[in-house]
Amino acid sequence: MTEIIRQLEKGDCLVVVDVQKDFCSGGLLAVKAGDEVVAPLNRWIGFARERDVPVYASRDWHPQRHLSFHEQGGKWPPHCIQDSEGAHFHPDLMLPPDIVRITKGVRFDQDQNSVFDQTGFSAQLRRDGVKSLWIGGLAEDVCVLASVLDALEEGFEVFLIKDATRPVSADAGSKAEKSMKRLGARIVF
Ligand SMILES: [Zn+2]
User: Fold this and answer.
1) Ligand 1 center to residue 183 CA distance, Å?
2) Less Cβ around it within 10 Å: N or C end of the chain?
3) Which H, E and C letters describe the chain, residue by residue?
4) The pTM is what?
């Protein structure tokens, strides 16, 4: 089902969150049906290209022995280790050659779930004249949620592309969607 509230236009951007091998099937921290976000995101990347709307793609990019890993007392199995195979974007994701990457999760002293968390991304968006974010990727209840909440906090309008995201857990996913909506994000399919 495709219901588009409006077409992409000047002042919009598309943000593709962490569509990396480790979050897809066979990855070290696979999100259920994570691969299913690739086809809708490719469609949206196509819309963005047609309308000259900027596309940004974030990647989780952890140093070895990152504090978010189980062995270091963190919440997750090791994943998206810098330069490893699993840290690559999904091979079917059709990112434009001039894609702007947002690299996060590199800090030694804390994790960074949000694409805005000490990356300077909001400054880049303002320089690029962006007012509205259309966002999808992985995972809905973790990095997408954190990014959407920060975007709203920063004063951007946010559209969550529902068929282009998947949660780690269904329950947390529906909670995440509720809080995003409550804080002003709009959900599109
Ligand atoms: Zn991570």
Assistant:
1) 25
2) N
3) CCCCCCCCCCCEEEEEECCEHHHCCCCCCCCCCHHHHHHHHHHHHHHHHHCCCCEEEEEECECCCCCCEHHHCCCECCCCECCCHHHCECCCCCCCCCCEEEEECCCCCCCCCCCCCCCCHHHHHHHCCCCEEEEEEECHHHHHHHHHHHHHHCCCEEEEEEEEEECCCHHHHHHHHHHHHHCCCEEEC
4) 0.96
